[in-house]
């Protein structure tokens, strides 16, 4: 959560720049891979407040907002919208025109109509791949990353290559899909985790996957013991 808060100024300043650069009466915005639960409305609230401040500073009328919140189909969309009443109460007591919709779907699918969005933002969701990389399995179908659930210090280099290849394919597909949905002159902000430097393993987050993999191994061995 801390890292999300540290990075959100990028999204907020970009949408303000977009608003200043255009004279759109309505901003259509998508939060793709939004958070779940009542928190999912927070980024939208902050976007609207930031644009509202810019409107007052520039003495311009506030645009209308059409906001689409995307998450996986299994996400609990009811819990996402539970905070709507509070959201509208806080936001200028309902005087601002903000329309919302939930859009269930995988972001490796088409999600929105052609040329329909002025602004798309992603925050810490793009690291989810579309599928387990096929190259993680040898010709006999055996996993080459035994005992691990991601790239670990113990993984052979081909594991890192398999994930890299899958990410490249997914990211290409993702960009192609969004380029169709973004209106001419629309902007997009992608915030995602990455590695500093060329070391494929050296990243503090990787340590967490190792610990999780160990916990899974222990759980599986306990289950096997009892069957
Ligand atoms: C780490 S959370 C980030 C949430 C939020 N964007 C934030 O910055 O707090 C990642 C979200 O992406 C969603 N997600 C993962 N893969 C997805 C996919 N293929 N399509 C749509 N949503 C996805 C997850 O359900 C989860 O809610």
What does this structure look like?
Helix 1 (2-21) runs parallel beside helix 2. The radius of gyration is 21 Å and the shape is elongated. It is built from 6 helices and 5 strands. It has helices at 2-21, 42-58, 77-80, 84-90, 157-181, 204-226, and strands at 26-32, 64-71, 98-104, 117-123, 182-191. The chain has one domain: 3-Layer(aba) Sandwich (Rossmann fold). It has a 5-stranded parallel sheet with strand order 3-2-1-4-5. The chain has 227 residues and is an alpha/beta fold. 42% of the residues lie in helices and 17% in strands. Helix 5 (157-181) links the parallel strand 4 and strand 5 (182-191). It binds S-adenosylmethionine. Residues 4, 33-36, 70-72, 75, 106-108, 123-125, 128 line the site of S-adenosylmethionine.
Q: In CATH, what is the homologous superfamily?
A: Vaccinia Virus protein VP39
Which geometry do the CA atoms define? elongated
- Spans of 5+ residues with little confidence (pLDDT < 50)? none
Helix content: 40-55%
What is the count of β-strands? 5
Rg of Cα set: 21 Å
Beta-strand percentage range = 15-25%
Give the termini distance in whole angstroms.
40 Å
Ligand identities: S-adenosylmethionine
Question: Largest sheet, if any?
Answer: 5 strands, parallel
Whole-number tally of structural domains: 1
CATH fold label: Rossmann fold
Instruction: Tell me which CATH architecture applies here.
Output: 3-Layer(aba) Sandwich
State mean pLDDT (0 to 100 scale).
89
- What is the string of helix and strand elements? HEHEHHEEHEH
The CATH class is identified as Alpha Beta
Output the strand order for the largest sheet. Answer: 3-2-1-4-5
Task: Report the structural category.
Answer: alpha/beta
SS summary, helix count:
6
InterPro entries: MeTrfase_7, SAM-dependent_MTases_sf
GO molecular function: methyltransferase activity
Protein name: Jasmonate O-methyltransferase
Organism: Acorus gramineus
């Amino acid at each position: 959560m801390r890292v999300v808060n540290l990075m959100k100024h990028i999204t907020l300043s970009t949408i303000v720049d977009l608003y200043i650069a255009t004279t759109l009466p309505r901003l259509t915005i998508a939060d793709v891979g939004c958070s779940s639960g009542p928190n999912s409305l927070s980024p939208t609230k902050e976007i609207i407040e930031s644009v509202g401040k810019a409107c007052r500073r520039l003495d311009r009328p506030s645009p209308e907002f059409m906001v689409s919140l995307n998450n996986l189909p299994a996400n609990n969309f009811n819990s996402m919208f539970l905070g709507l009443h509070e959201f509208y109460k806080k936001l200028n007591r309902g005087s601002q025109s903000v329309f919302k919709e939930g859009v269930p779907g995988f972001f490796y699918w088409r999600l929105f109509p052609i040329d329909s969005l002025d602004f798309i933002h992603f925050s810490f969701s793009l690291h989810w791949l579309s599928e387990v990389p096929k190259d993680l399995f040898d010709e006999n179908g055996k996993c080459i990353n035994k005992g691990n659930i991601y790239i670990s210090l113990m993984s052979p280099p081909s594991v890192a290559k398999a994930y890299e290849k899958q990410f490249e394919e997914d990211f290409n597909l993702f960009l192609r899909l969004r380029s169709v949905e973004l209106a001419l002159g629309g902007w997009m902000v992608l915030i995602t985790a990455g590695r500093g430097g060329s070391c494929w393993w050296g990243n503090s987050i990787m340590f967490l996957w190792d610990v999780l993999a160990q916990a899974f191994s222990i759980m599986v061995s306990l289950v096997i013991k009892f069957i």
